[in-house]
Amino acid sequence: MSKKSNKPWFSLKNQTDKPAELLIYDVIGDWQGLSAKELVNDLKAITVSEITVRINSPGGSVFDGIAIYNALRYHPANVHVRIEGLAASIASVIAMAGDAITMAENSLMMIHNPFGWVGGEAEDMRRTADMLDKATDSIALAYAGKSGHSVDDITPMMADETWMTAAEAKEHGFIDKVDKPVQLAASLDVEGFQNVPKDLLPQAPVSSPPLPNVLGNAPEPSNSALAIVQMCNQAGYPEQAELMLKTNASVEEVRQRLADCDTIKNLCAAARSDKTAEYIQSGKSVETVRTELFEVLVAQQQPINNSLSPQQQQTPSEHSQSQQTVRLDVQALYQKRNHNNQ
């Protein structure tokens, strides 16, 4: 697994002779070791009368974003937000904290319902759904407060995952001014979203001075947070996304881990073990799980049912080109039992 990158997702410059400047140019949250709490604490120390917030972000942690929004909204300084590339998801909520909001002519804004994942019992699922409903209401209030629209008008736009050009955002009241185009170094990766209109994808050429490249424009960028979240969700292991992001795993490393999760799941099925979730969440390797299950089965002294389907026994995962043997070695199990009983 790759080491965690030291690249921050925000920077804050407190300049005494001119406005303080906050740059949010990446996925929002503590993926890179910097939390919203640090940013909020840094904002409290700002004493100048103006803060400029420059945004080029696909979003990130809902609650981190709401905390940043509130810190900016209630800061005594005049806050000027400049959207310079993309303000999507919770990044668009942060933008609503501006006393004045300017959007580059070629930039984009996207609003949608928050999403999350959870593992557990039915009550855990219900609590998460209730939490998401409350987060949706909180976000809708932020949009409504700026745009002048009612919450009832805003929530359908969120449910539809609405993408807006600068002109459309101004028309809907989300921003105050459209500014001259900003030439971006590369397009942001927006594959993790549902309804990106093709004609809204940034197509600007490279020019100087470029903005920092947030997620890159390669088909499969090695550290694309959105692509990683989407891969984990589609594979049925959404809880792995946070771990993969925090460890700065590459797309190939994520694929391999998801393949390992499939193998661990099938090993547990063969051993009739209920520890699938425990093994996967702990990050144990396939070989460690295989060894532990082997020892458990040896100690149980019960007949072994190894009647997995051929597909389960040899699993060429869609997440990896490699194949891993899933079938338990029944002969070795009985041999060790006999040896132990001698």
Q: In words, what does this structure look like?
A:
With 342 residues, the protein is α/β, with parallel strands linked by helices. The chain has two domains: 10-215, 2-enoyl-CoA Hydratase, Chain A, domain 1, CATH 3.90.226; 251-341, no CATH class. It is 42% helix and 15% strand. The protein has 13 helices and ten strands. The chain has helices spanning 36-44, 62-73, 90-95, 122-147, 151-159, 166-171, 225-235, 240-246, 251-270, 276-282, 286-300, 310-313, 330-341, and strands spanning 10-13, 20-24, 50-57, 78-88, 100-104, 108-111, 162-165, 177-179, 314-316, 323-325. The strands form two sheets. Strands 1, 2, 3, 4, 5, 6, 7 and 8 form an eight-stranded mixed sheet that branches. Strands 9-10 form a two-stranded antiparallel sheet. Strand 9 and strand 10 (323-325) form a beta hairpin. It is elongated and about 75 Å long. Mean pLDDT is 75; it is low at 1-6, 204-223 and 307-326.
